[in-house]
Design brief:
Length: 158
């Protein structure tokens, strides 16, 4: 009797199962990485909105003047411009240097049950008390007295 040998073509069941397992594992790894990237992008967008709110509030403070801002007492607020509610708070501290304020602005919000916070510190100049005193002194003295520029001479170009 002669035995017939069959030529095997194709893959065995074990090879197919191993290849399927490797393929599904790699697909799951790609999905996990993309999900993580989407979450990080959403969080970065929230930080960008918080930074934009800080910039907007600091521009407003700079426009109206730090002295008037501190006097107004509006040192906190809420922004609901997007799906996330942002709470902002400004603390001002007068420095020992004339008309200089240290501003600390904190923006807080809740992201998926976790509190997030962005804190920015800057320095702003208020109205100078020294200049006001000098102006008052000049008007009291009659404003006279030929004001020569420092360095003397009062001449033209050299």
């Amino acid at each position: 009797m002669m035995r017939r040998t069959r030529a095997t073509s194709g893959f065995s069941l074990v090879e197919t199962l191993v290849a399927g397992t490797i393929l599904s594992g790699s697909v799951l790894a790609v999905l996990a990485a993309s999900t993580s990237c989407i979450g990080t992008t959403r969080l970065n967008r929230q930080y960008e909105r918080a930074a934009s709110l800080v910039e907007k509030q600091l521009s407003l403070i700079d426009f109206i003047g730090i002295d008037d801002f501190v006097d107004s007492g509006e040192l906190e607020g809420v922004s609901e411009e997007s799906e996330t509610t942002y709470h902002w708070q400004v603390e001002s501290e007068y420095q020992d240097i004339d008309s200089l304020y240290r501003l600390t602005m904190a923006v807080t919000w809740i992201d998926r049950g976790r509190p997030r916070r962005l804190v920015v510190e800057t320095m702003l100049n208020g109205e100078s008390l020294v200049l006001e005193e000098e102006e008052e002194g000049e008007t009291d003295s009659g404003g006279g007295g030929g004001g020569e520029a420092p360095g003397g001479g009062g001449g033209g170009n050299r």
